[in-house]
Each structure stands twice: as structure tokens, then as C-alpha cells.
Design brief:
There is one protein chain. With about 110 residues, this protein is mostly helical. The protein is built from five helices and no strands. Helix 4 runs antiparallel to helix 5. The longest helix is centred in the middle third of the chain and has 20 residues.
């Protein structure tokens, strides 16, 4: 069950892109500099990959999974705070993340 649930979650997270939050992304593109959205997206992806690696570890440490999930949630909330993702997207991703955390280490691989 974990593999079936983690893969779509990761695909969704990794497909999020920067540059659509008002003029912030457009200004950065015009000026040729990085945007806040790009930095938050980079952190989000790093957090998602760290979470996935621990989640699929043979010896899952639930407290580590929870900490990594907290980091991932922080990145998602940051994207929402800068209007890079909608409220409905945030809620859906957090629901999936919480479900993954609840099932971590249950041997349902």
C-alpha cells in the first residue's frame, strides 16, 4: 500500500513549479534572477526526497519520518503563503502526507 500511495504523492509534489505566484516569479524571470518561489520549490523537493528515502527504508524510524513530514509540511505551507499553490492543493497534499505518516513502518510495502 505504501508504494501505491507514495508515488502519486511524490509525483504531485515534484510537479509543482515556481513562477506562477503573482508578479514575483515574472519579475525574477525578467531580471534573470531567482525568485522566492524557486527557493521554496527547491527546499520542497529536497524535503520530499528525504521523506521518501526514510519512508522506504527497511528499518523505518517513525520519529524521523514524522520530522521529515513536518519539514515537508512547512515547505508546502510556505508555498501556500506566497500564493504559489492554492488552499485546496495544500489541503489535499497535507491529507495525503498525514496518511503516509500514519502508515509508515506498518510493513505494508
Amino acid at each position: 500500500m505504501q508504494s501505491k500511495t507514495l508515488a502519486p504523492f511524490l509525483e504531485h509534489v515534484m510537479s509543482l513549479n515556481a513562477g506562477y505566484a503573482g508578479m514575483g516569479g515574472a519579475q525574477a524571470a525578467i531580471a534573470g534572477s531567482r525568485s522566492t518561489e524557486t527557493d521554496v520549490i527547491t527546499d520542497l523537493r529536497k524535503n520530499a526526497l528525504a521523506f521518501a528515502a526514510e519512508y522506504h527504508d527497511v528499518h523505518v524510524n517513525r520519529s524521523t519520518v514524522q520530522q521529515l513530514a513536518n519539514n515537508l509540511e512547512g515547505s508546502l505551507r510556505s508555498l501556500h503563503a506566497i500564493s504559489a499553490i492554492s488552499e485546496s492543493t495544500l489541503v489535499a497534499l497535507l491529507k495525503e502526507l498525514n496518511m503516509l505518516v500514519d502508515h509508515a513502518g506498518n510493513g505494508e510495502r
